[in-house]
Amino acid sequence: MSTQTAPPAPRQYKPYVPHDMQMTEFTVRAVILGLVMTVILGAANAYLGLRAGMTIAATYPAAVIAMAVLRLMRGSILEENMARTVGSIGESVAAGAIFTIPAFVISGAWPVFDFKTAYWKSTVLMMVGGTLGILFVTLLRRVMVEDPELPYPESVAAGEIHKAGQQGAKAAKILFANMGFGGLVYLLGQFNLFSATKDFVLRVGELGTSFVRMGTGANAGRLPSGGETVFSAPAVSPAYLGVGYIIGPKLAALNFSGGVLAWGLLVPLIMFLKGPEFVASLGGNVTGGYWEGQAAAVWRFIVRPIAVGGMLVGASYTLFRMRKNLAIGMKRAVADLKKSGSTQAATNRTEIDLNSKIIFGGLAVTLVCMIALYGYFAGTIGGGALAAIVMIILGFFFAAVSGNLVGMIGSSNNPISGLTLATLIISALLMVSIGVKGVSGVAAVLGVAAVVCVSSAVAGEMLQDLKVGHILGGTPKYMQIGDFIGIVVASLALYFPLMVLHYGNINAGGTGFGDRQLSAPQAGLMAMLSQGIVGGEMAWPLIVVGVAMGIAMIMLGVRSPMLVSVGMYLPLETTFAIFVGGLFRWLTDTLRDRRNFNDAQKARIENAGVLTASGLIAGEALMGIVIAVFRWREWPLPRIFDTPPAIMGFIVLAIVAAVMIFLPLKNAGDPNEPAPPTAIM
User: Fold this and answer.
1) What b/e readout covers 653-681, taking b as 16+ CB neighbours within 10 angstroms?
2) How far is CA 278 from CA 91, 201, 227, 285, 589, in A?
3) Residue 14 above 70 pLDDT?
4) Taking 70 as the threshold, does the pLDDT of residue 106 lie above it?
5) Quick check: 185 pLDDT over 50?
6) First and final C-alpha spacing in the chain
7) Stated pTM of the model
């Protein structure tokens, strides 16, 4: 008689703080600290996204600040987890908002962005998107967080950072010191101690003598040519330099290559060929500053639409490359929903979610609110109902896909703009099919895109935080409530930095959203596509040229056509500064390798470098919003020089370079110390 051995029972996961241990977690101080961070980090990312077209993950800075502050108060590790969870959610709301809400203004769907007209609309879109993201993730949390096939790389790293929290005070000093330094450098530039940007006018041929021969024969026609173009030096900007440092030299170079394509090829080529015609249109009377203005117009109205075509291909290509993960995410979204319906009620503290009645009731209320809002946008209740249904369906699937992608590759690689672009095209085609066109149709389409964009961003960030809580032993219910509070506060607050930046730019002589200093490239893409499909207004030939360019980049094996196209859309001084920041990272890594540091020291250098760059970004962003308030209110700023000496800009750039390169190297520490967790970026 043979005996069969039963297979061993699966090992039960044990969190860092056991489920039966009582520990302070959902406290007033943890939530308030998280809310302060969510507003500050959200506003900083709104500034950065509008100006540089990128946002930086807030998980690592939020974890460092939470550890430093709460350990001074003898707070628990679960309070730190709560503060980080609430503090990082504002960044995802900001990312979703800046990709879509400025598009309402750029497209003309909202003629103004003042408090009376835009505040309640912006707030509702952000709040509904954030709420949907939380509700969708709460439905799927247990099966997705416990899925063994989802490694959650950034969540695991964040959990290790909290466990190794004894380094929190030192890390916070680096972060806060560089926030102060970055803010000071930015303010000195605004006070005219040095010129933060510098343009150079360059001749492209010679008016009156240059020509292009249109044939090989002696009698071949000649095309008169010649003109002037503009080339910019890198901006002395702590934020741009910090972005370049974080994304590294390879991605920074890709981004800068787009700027070189725009300002080293397309703009000079058009100015060379069309220069005589431009001058003739003025009767030959060219005044000072004419060529700079004409080059800027060529870039804005010819090159930027080409860049939009490239971004369209880049976003589509990103989704295509991730098609297997996206398909897996779609299948799991359906399977996870079925599993969540059959999951037994939890008894352990670490498994308790919000009540399902609250979740489904919240979804029903949200749907009714969206039908009313979209009906207001579209001018018809039928169009509003269709838009709301599309939003709920796409919002759920894209939130689930976003969560799965975060579990596989981390939130830093989450293709939010690509998912939003797919939503916009689907909803735009549906609006056209039922006859909703014009400005009202554009507003309805952008409304759907805004909610889905915020929902997907929040879902990915929240699932990442819930996985950290799962590792540390946090209570999901309290984390979900904390994120709800964070969403409400972030939604109520984030309109104000957007409004101040928009009107501050206008009062400084710009055009607001879409201006050279407030480019908002993703919002420009959304605005142009919605106008083209629903509004019937688009420079399609230029878009097609950009599409062909994007396809050519794919054929050439370019790593990220999207990043190159964004570089074309951004001002040259922005992409140039990001590239210089990438060079600073390369120099730091080169010096680190030459000094034969061990792995633990290299990890400390990397962490210190990311904290330094994050501090510089946050410092400029916060002071940038303060300066925008002064310009919005038309308060005068002090001026140190009327015309700053050119050498001052080089001196300041050299000082910033020294800080970014040598400060991380100084924090290598003792080779015998254990390795810290690596920064999440």
Assistant:
1) beebbebbbebbbebbbeeeeeebbbbbb
2) 44, 16, 9, 10, 48
3) yes
4) yes
5) yes
6) 60
7) 0.84
